[in-house]
Amino acid sequence: MRRCGASATFEGMSNHVPDTEELSPILVLGYKVAENPQLSGPAFQGYEATATELNTAIKAMPDYDKPGTMSVFAVPQELARRCIAIALPAEPSLADLREAAGQALRRKDVSGKVLLQMPYQNMEELQAIVEGANLGRYRPTLFKKQPEITAIEVFTEGEEEATAQAIAAAERLASAQNMVRDLVNMPGSYLNPEFFYTISEILDEETDDEISVKTWNVEDLLEDDCGGLIGVGAGSQFPPCLIRLEWAGGENPQGHVALVGKGITYDSGGMSLKPSQGLVSMKSDMAGAATVMETVRLAAARKMPVRVTAWLAVAENMLSSTAQRVDDIITMPNGKTVEVNNTDAEGRLVLADALCLAVREEPDAVIDIATLTGAQIAALGSRTAGLMGSDEVVDAVFEASQQAGESAWPMPLPNHLRKSLDSEVADLQNSGSRYGGMLVGGLFLKEFVGDTPWCHIDIAGPSFNSEEPWGYTPKGGTGYGVRTLITYLENIAKKSAAAPAENK
């Protein structure tokens, strides 16, 4: 018996542990909190009596009217294996819908096929629900076999083509975030600079010229005076590299945005060696590079009318007899010299190289994203990124982060902290005052962008969840930043499309 007039199914990766109950799906329902919550809709077509019983059972549960509360009920086996009901606010936002769907599907006891019904009023809300569900279904299965969600059937109402487009867009966006999660969770023994280099070659071969790829090996980096990448990567058996990906923006691109990502595949601290506890999760120090890579891929997939270049500054910061020393002086592509007084402040060195090369192409704006400082976590916590740079770009990125449901906050770049980067023997040193360390990192990067409008996003905390899972966010890599960056690009495209009408 069909349970709905219209439905849509999206499939995920099939590398899962077989589930003996896979043929019997799990029903996930969202209900808005009210004095008398009502479960109804296409999921209960032919099962109206079951809906009535569930409505009574929900009201008997503690905190049933508190958003986020989940209750599990037995239902007729021909309907589902079991039912999970989750409470929504009376007027849920897009973030509420995304979080609720992800929270329900993130449960460890949810696997196999899932039937999903949540209230929505438009395609934007449906997209948030499907995106949250696909983020919640994420399981790190590369090195651990565990039951997975194999398919999600979404009960829908409305115009079929618009519904299919909304679901496809949500799936692609969530897939990009989940790819970032996979890369961030991958240990440095697998994901090293050579791995990133191989990914770029695969992209070059498989994107049908939609994304053009250029790479710099060690010889190329030396030729362009990329002292940051050369120095940071000197201690590793895997040579550093710089990778440039470009989506040209179609026939009539509306502007050019350069994205720069920090790609330290493992950060031991080098000569300024981290303490043992500080080494934990340092596989995640390449989250910025993974984020800009997936953003440019997503821009190409959407045929976005904006030229996007993504620069991946990739190296491994290791300690060895060939490693960069404290007190070394390196030369950057813009001619400035840097005294390395802290080899564990390496991210800003590789970013500086990439920023110098990116601004040579005269983009309309450049945005770098990096797990740059522990001071970011101290200042803003583990879920909120810090934004620094030119006011107009920072404001636009902040607006995009709010629209995308990713927490970020603008921070200043006080001139009085700049003097802490002064060096007696070079143009500047790479580490300054311990107070306001996030801001000092931003001030260092400012030296390498010239007059180009610029925003620096410090994602040291938001990129990797070391605490308990929450909402659609698991432990480990989060995929933070993809939604903000793609929303920023979408806003540019929308403003450009609206400009002719405004000028008439």
Give the secondary structure arrangement, pairings included:
Blueprint: E1 6-11, E2 26-32, H1 48-59, E3 70-73, E4 83-88, H2 94-105, E5 112-117, H3 123-136, E6 149-156, H4 160-185, H5 193-206, E7 211-216, H6 218-223, H7 227-232, E8 241-247, E9 256-267, H8 287-301, E10 307-317, E11 329-331, E12 337-339, H9 347-359, E13 365-370, H10 374-380, E14 385-389, H11 391-404, E15 408-410, H12 415-418, E16 428-429, H13 437-446, E17 454-458, E18 464-465, E19 476-477, H14 482-503
Parallel strand pairs: 2-4, 2-5, 5-6, 9-10, 9-13, 12-16, 13-17, 14-15
Antiparallel strand pairs: 1-6, 3-4, 7-8, 8-10, 11-12, 14-17, 18-19
Helix pairs in contact: 2-3, 3-4, 4-8, 8-14, 11-14
Cofactor: Mn(2+)
Pfam families: Peptidase_M17
Family: Belongs to the peptidase M17 family.
Question: Could you characterize what this model shows?
Answer:
- The protein is of the alpha/beta class.
- It has two domains: 165 residues, 3-Layer(aba) Sandwich (Leucine Aminopeptidase, subunit E, domain 1), CATH 3.40.220.10; 312 residues, Zn peptidases (Aminopeptidase), CATH 3.40.630.10.
- The chain contains 14 helices and 19 strands.
- The strands form four sheets. Strands 7-8-10-9-13-17-14-15 form an eight-stranded mixed β-sheet, sandwiched between helices. Strands 1-6-5-2-4-3 form a six-stranded mixed β-sheet, sandwiched between helices.
- Helix 3 runs parallel beside helix 4, helix 8 crosses helix 14 and helix 11 packs across helix 14.
- The chain is elongated and about 80 Å long.
- The N and C termini lie far apart (55 Å).
- The N terminus is likely disordered.
